[in-house]
Amino acid sequence: HIKRQYSFLPGMFSFQIMAMCTMIRNIGIMAHIDAGKTTTTERMLYYSGYIRALGDVDDGDTVTDFMAQERERGITIQSAAVTFDWKSHRINLIDTPGHVDFTLEVERALRVLDGAVAVFDASAGVEAQTLTVWRQAEKHHVPCICFLNKMDNLGFSIQSIRDKLKANPVLLQTPIGSGKNFTGVVDLITNQKLIWKQKSVGDDGRAYEVKPLNELDDAAVLQEAKGARSALIEQLQAAVRRVTLARKGVPVLLGSSLKNKGVQPLLDAITAYLPAPNERHHDLVQWYKDDLCALAFKVLHDKQRGPLVFLRIYSGTLKAQTAVHNINRNSIERMSRLLVPFADQHVEIPSMPAGNIALTVGLKQTVTGDTIVLSKASAAAAARRAQNKADTGKKRGEHASVILSGVEVPDPVFFCTIEPPTMAKQADLENALNCLQREDPSLKVRVDPDSGQTVLCGMGELHIEIIHDRIRREYGIETHLGPLQVAYRETIVQHVSTTDTLDRTIGEKRHVVTVELSVRPAADAGGSCQVEFEEQTVELSPEMKEAVENGVHSSYLQGPLLGYPLQDVSTLIQSVHVESGTSLAMVSACVSRCMLKALKLAGGQVLEPVMSLEVTVGEDYLGSVLGDLAQRRGTVRDIQSRHDNKVLLATVPLAEMMGYSTILRTLTSGNATFSLELDSYEAMNLQDQNTLLKRMSGLL
After folding, report:
1. SS3 labels along 615-628
2. Of 84, 243, 563, 684, whose CB is crowded by the most CB atoms within 10 A?
3. DSSP E strands: which ranges in 231-274?
4. pLDDT tens track for 632-660
5. Is residue 284's pLDDT more than 90?
6. Cα–Cα distances in Å, from 310 out to 77, 109, 141, 424, 493?
7. Strands 144-149 and 115-121
8. Domain ranges (residues) in the chain
9. pLDDT digits over 320-374, tens only?
């Protein structure tokens, strides 16, 4: 494990100035894998004076990739937060992973950030995971800046941003040279050249020349700058900022982080164009006024300090050694210490004002997505203010919520069994899995009701592999994983109505419920399951309706064929008759039983996850890759040219992609890369479904 020396400057975490929200920037770095996010982050920390030496991803000594698995593999696995200053601005930065298996890390970071820097490999333009993280930023309405790293093909990258992201790139710089000859940029707003002259191999790029553009310069550079600047002439810096904040355009800057070029202007652009916390409008927060309101968006486990909870503070001030109220858990917790995050190194502080990101010690019950407030009384006061406003507006009669929206967690696509080396280690394994689940909500753990085995459910092969490795390294347990299996889903094929009556006596109490309902396929449900009530059921109390819904939703967890979760099913509750004294639990039980009957009558259909596959390969190996893909039930969508390579776009069932990285490496002698992203769940054909049913029956 390589030790890093951090240059914590005197008074670096004094918040007397940074209490002003206008001087704070909460940003994320997001990109496709290997575009240069972590390298760019490392340069930011170096040029801002917060580290003394530049780390390298290949050497495994960057600040934000501090996990052993990250250093060994040269990839980012979990998001890391760092705080630093740049020209009187406080920048709270989160470096996020670029691999699809860890997309939740991007999701929960963007949920609490005000802006983002999308890093592109300029030779590749928009890649598969670029598109995914861009959609996530759009979902959370996060303004972005584009940084074309590894500066090579400007026109190709700009066009791919227009075509694939449907964004409006606002080019702020043009390159001086490209590829190995890239030496700097022309700032189109100031009409100046920024040139990095590397005097030696070890030149750190801290110093660069700023010169006015003049007629004696290279004619091609002048012509390109003149043409680009004429398109920008009416958009001065304030106008660029307005366009960025409204997400009507994205500023585009150029550079080469590995060669230490272009990062300082990127930092300037972050402070100039991305929003301050008070420029991002969170309607719900206004009800708390100056009281504390914060969102927990990440949890880490520290062997000495216990759970460390990351909070984004939206209002009020967070103070150490104080009690706070968790609305979601309805619990009071005492926060013992307050820290400023700096990757795996932290600095303790007494308080933190609104607009910042803090790390807390002592919140033992808080999990990702929880809302933290000053007290139960402050939450009640906020609810009254919200309700008073709702009663005077269009939402009259609705209950006003004062809980911040949480983090959307994707469903797992792979699962496998996990066993400890001996039964004596079972309790230790359960503890490890509980801690890891709290850290990573995309990891699901369940116990198979038939075999009693513990089952891990994750986002991909790499995800489960990393979890397995962490259990071994961090918790000292040598576990055994069963075969990796695909998490299929099920739906129904027919519209069916049914009724059921439950009549049960427990002790001296008789419970009688009669339920009538119908189920139907709902292709328009967007992958979800729905429950609706007929008009004659309006007399049901809210508690009774909740009991009915619980019975329906519990039935959606297991389909009629193989017990996989259901999707695209709509249930209509036609009538519910309950005799006096019947418990709500019995109502739920009757609904579940009736649902089970209906689902079996409706007939089952297995849905399999189908992935979008992008393979970049030399033309000499394209035929081999296509032949292999045909054997995997793949469908080719397009074959594009990218410089000397071919880019193959296809869809392929996830079940056919087990161990694909090894096969692709063999087929192409290591001259290919690929990325996978979940595209959709599609119905299996009858032959494949019958084969799966037989195989699963054999396993059982």
Report:
1. EEEEHHHHHHHHHH
2. 84
3. 250-254
4. 999 999 999 887 889 999 999 999 998 89
5. no
6. 17, 10, 21, 34, 45
7. parallel
8. 24-279, 284-391, 414-485, 491-602, 607-697
9. 999 999 999 999 999 999 999 888 888 899 999 999 999 999 999 999 999 999 9
| Cα–Cα separations (whole angstroms), residue 555 to 91, 325, 334, 546 | 47, 34, 39, 14
Phi and psi at 200, nearest 5°, equal -155, 170
**Average per-residue pLDDT for the chain:** 88
**Least confident piece of the model among 33-37, 251-255, 467-471:** 33-37
Number of H helices, E strands in the chain: 17, 35
The pLDDT score that the predictor gives to residue 11 is: 43
The yes/no answer on whether domain 491-602 falls in CATH 3.40.1410.10 is: no
Residues 188, 221: Cα–Cα separation, whole Å = 12
pLDDT, position 420: 94
Beta carbons of 461 and 454 less than 8 angstroms apart: no
Which H or E run contains 90?
strand 89-95
Residue type, 644: D
Give the C-alpha separation, 251 to 256, whole Å: 17
Structure tokens at 325: 């109220």
Q: Tokens 């992935």 appear where?
A: 611
First to last CA, the chain: 44
604 three-state secondary structure? strand
Sheet containing strand 192-195, edge to edge, reads 173-176, 184-187, 192-195, 209-212
> Are the C-beta atoms of 433 and 479 separated by less than 8 Å?
no
Q: What is the DSSP string of 76-119?
A: --S-EEEEEEETTEEEEEEE---SGGGHHHHHHHHHH-SEEEEE
Domain 414-485 has CATH 2.40.50.90: no
Does 428 score more than 90 pLDDT?
A: yes
How far is residue 222's CA from residue 234's CA, in Å, rounded to a whole number? 19
Q: To 5 degrees, how large is the angle CA 401–CA 406–CA 409?
A: 140
Give the separation between CA 330 and CA 586, rounded to whole angstroms.
27
Do residues 475 and 439 make contact, with C-beta atoms less than 8 angstroms apart? no
Angstrom distance (rounded) from CA 252 to CA 146: 5
CATH match of 607-697 with 3.40.50.300? no
Q: Does 284-391 carry CATH code 2.40.30.10? A: yes
DSSP secondary structure letters along 484-497 = -EE--EEEE-S-EE
* Beta bridge mates, 419: 480
**In the structure encoding, which two tokens stand for residue 274, read together?**
């991305």
CB 31 within 8 A of CB 126: no
In CATH terms, is domain 24-279 a member of 3.40.50.300? yes
- Report how far residue 551's alpha carbon sits from residue 545's, in angstroms, rounded to the nearest whole number: 10
Q: Say if 284-391 and 491-602 have the same CATH topology.
A: no
Give the span between the Cα atoms of 544 and 63, in whole angstroms: 54
The rounded distance, in Å, linking the Cα atoms of 25 and 83 is 10
Average pLDDT over residues 47-62: 89
- 61-88 core/surface letters (b: 16 or more CB in 10 A; e: else): bbbbbbbebbbebbbbbbbbbbbbbbee
| C-alpha span between 24 and 44 (Å, rounded) | 16
Residue carrying structure tokens 């592109």: 120
Q: Is the dihedral of CA 435, 441, 447, 448 positive or negative?
A: negative
Phi, psi torsion values for 688, nearest 5 degrees = -65, -35
Strand 144-149, strand 250-254: pairing:
parallel
Residues in the chain: 700
**Full-model pTM:** 0.81
Cα distance between residue 372 and residue 322, in whole Å: 12
Average pLDDT for residues 473-480, to the nearest whole number? 94
Question: What is the C-alpha to C-alpha distance for residues 283 and 286, in angstroms, rounded to an integer?
Answer: 6
- C-alpha span between 220 and 227 (Å, rounded): 11
Match 């630093």 to its residue by tokens. Answer: 84
Quickly state the pLDDT bin for 230 (edges 50, 70, 90).
low
Q: Are 558 and 565 in contact (CB under 8 A)?
A: yes
Q: What is the mean pLDDT of residues 469-493?
A: 93
- Tell me the three state secondary structure of residue 122: coil
